[in-house]
Design a protein that fits this description.
Length: 236
C-alpha cells in the first residue's frame, strides 16, 4: 500500500507559526521522516521551528523546484510507492499553488497515491479576501511578462477581462521585480480601476492596501523592496 503525500503549508514570514499553522498540521509534519521541498535550507529551518523530534540530517529530503525536469518526478515518488508518507513543502505558503509542486501532485494522482492538502496561509487567497473585489469570480494569472511592451499589453488585457467579466484578476511578482510591475500597473490601468497591493500577509510587516489607480498616482508609493507581492485588479 502506498503512502500519503501531505501538502504541508509553511508561514509566509518569521515568528508567525502559532497564528497560521494549526496544531494538527504541526503534528503531521513532526512525525514525517520523508520530505520533498522547494528549498532544503528553508525547509530544515521550518521543520526545526515546527518541533520535529528527528535529527534534521537524518531526514530523507529531495529538492523539487522550477529547474526539476519532468522525467525526474517519478523518482521523487518512490518512497510513497514503498509505503512511506511524504511531506511536500514550498518555500512559503501552500505547496502546489504558484509552485513547482503541482507537477508532482498531478503525477501522484495518476499513480493512485493519496494526496492530502493541509490547512495553512495562502497569500493569493488572503489578498483576494482583503481586496474587496469579486470573490465569487476571480482568476489567478501567476507571473505576467516582465518586459514591455508585452507586460503593458497583458495588464490592459487583464483590465479589459475584469471589466467585461466582472471578475478579480490576481497576479504575483518576485521581490526584485514587483516595483517595476507596480509602476507598469499605474501606467497601463485606467484611473477608475481598483488596484490592491498585498505583501508579507500574516506577518508584523503586513501591507494590505486597495485604492483606485488615480488615488495611487496621487499618493505615496508603497514600500515593496524585497517583498513578494500579490496584485489584484478589479475594474468591474
Amino acid at each position: 500500500m502506498s503512502g500519503t503525500l501531505y501538502l504541508i503549508p509553511v508561514p509566509l514570514g518569521t515568528d508567525t507559526l502559532a497564528s497560521v499553522i494549526p496544531a494538527d498540521v504541526l503534528a503531521t509534519a513532526q512525525r514525517l521522516t520523508h520530505f520533498i521541498v522547494e528549498a532544503p535550507k528553508t525547509a530544515r529551518a521550518f521543520l526545526k521551528e515546527f518541533g520535529t523530534p528527528h535529527e534534521l540530517r537524518s531526514l530523507w529530503m529531495e529538492e523539487l523546484n522550477e529547474h526539476t525536469k519532468e522525467d525526474a518526478l517519478s523518482a521523487l515518488l518512490k518512497p510513497l510507492l514503498d509505503g512511506h508518507d511524504v511531506g511536500l513543502m514550498s518555500e512559503a505558503g501552500c505547496p502546489g499553488v504558484a509552485d513547482p509542486g503541482a507537477n508532482l501532485i498531478r503525477l501522484a494522482h495518476r499513480k493512485g497515491i493519496k494526496v492530502a492538502p493541509l490547512v495553512g496561509p495562502s497569500s493569493i487567497l488572503l489578498a483576494l479576501m482583503g481586496a474587496g473585489a469579486n470573490g465569487q469570480k476571480f482568476r489567478f494569472n501567476g507571473y505576467i511578462p516582465s518586459q514591455d511592451p508585452a507586460r503593458l499589453e497583458a495588464i490592459r488585457q487583464l483590465e479589459n477581462d475584469s471589466y467585461r467579466n466582472k471578475q478579480a484578476e490576481l497576479m504575483i511578482e518576485t521581490p526584485y521585480r514587483n516595483g517595476a510591475l507596480f509602476d507598469a500597473l499605474l501606467l497601463g490601468l485606467k484611473g477608475s480601476t481598483q488596484l490592491t497591493v498585498a505583501c508579507d500577509l500574516t506577518t508584523s510587516n503586513e501591507l494590505m492596501l486597495s485604492k483606485t489607480v488615480a488615488d495611487w498616482k496621487s499618493g505615496t508609493k508603497p514600500d515593496l523592496h524585497k517583498r513578494p507581492t500579490v496584485f489584484v485588479i478589479y475594474a468591474a
